[in-house]
Amino acid sequence: MTDLNAASLEDVAQFFKTYYAPNNAVLTLVGDFKTPEAIAKIKKYFEDIPAQPAPPPVDMTEPAQPKERRTTVEDSFARLPRLDIVYKSVPGNTPDWYALDMLGDILFGGPSSRLYQKLVKEKAVALQVAGGIDMRRGPALFQAFALLKPGQDAAEVEKLIYEEFEHVKTDGVTTAELQKVLIQDRLQQAESLTNTMSRARTLGRYAVYFHDPNLINTTLANYSEVTPADIRRVARQYLGETQHTVVLTTPKAEAQQAPAR
What we know:
Blueprint: H1 2-6, H2 9-19, H3 35-46, E1 69-75, E2 82-88, H4 95-108, H5 114-122, E3 126-133, E4 141-148, H6 154-171, H7 175-193, H8 196-210, H9 215-224, H10 228-238, E5 244-251, H11 254-257
Parallel strand pairs: 1-5
Antiparallel strand pairs: 2-4, 2-5, 3-4
Helix pairs in contact: 4-10, 5-6, 6-10
């Protein structure tokens, strides 16, 4: 709020003029339309909006993280402890990104994934497990998340997660696991493309992030090129002991939550 309160009306107007300009925008049309009519309407409503000087390029590089970062947060809205382990990784649409995305699916992708089976089914220390890599133009985040059962030791759950990471680094993953993830990716993409809004958002995202809306047709081929050796390599390269940030969110004590009566 300090930054927002410090912004002047002139600052806000200049920001809008710079970034909400037609030459800094992508317009996506999908669905059943007649192209000449659609282009005529686009020209009618957008052609007269003047272009602006291109905004300055944004430096999206991140400094290397030389050591672990760790903190604990008390949350008055939380009902159960939550453990987050996050690693800096790579931009989207790169070979290592596709390998890390598949690794995330193997570790966290649904009830059959390694860490769901280990933490929820076998050890019964967590109620939910999720994770994987997000897609960004700059360095992305590879995240592991666990919602702990009441009374569980967060340090022990964290140790179990690291153990599974080490298994991947040492023993790798199987071809069968990769094939399962590819089938899941193919199904998810087919389902998302049946939705008009999803198609529009995906085309727009690929155009803005990577200047290549045709990625909507080629991403599955990029996933197909990932090998078990690639998975093992990126696990070793990006899931290092000094490269992560750990946040434990705990419920605020009841005595502090409720006023005395």
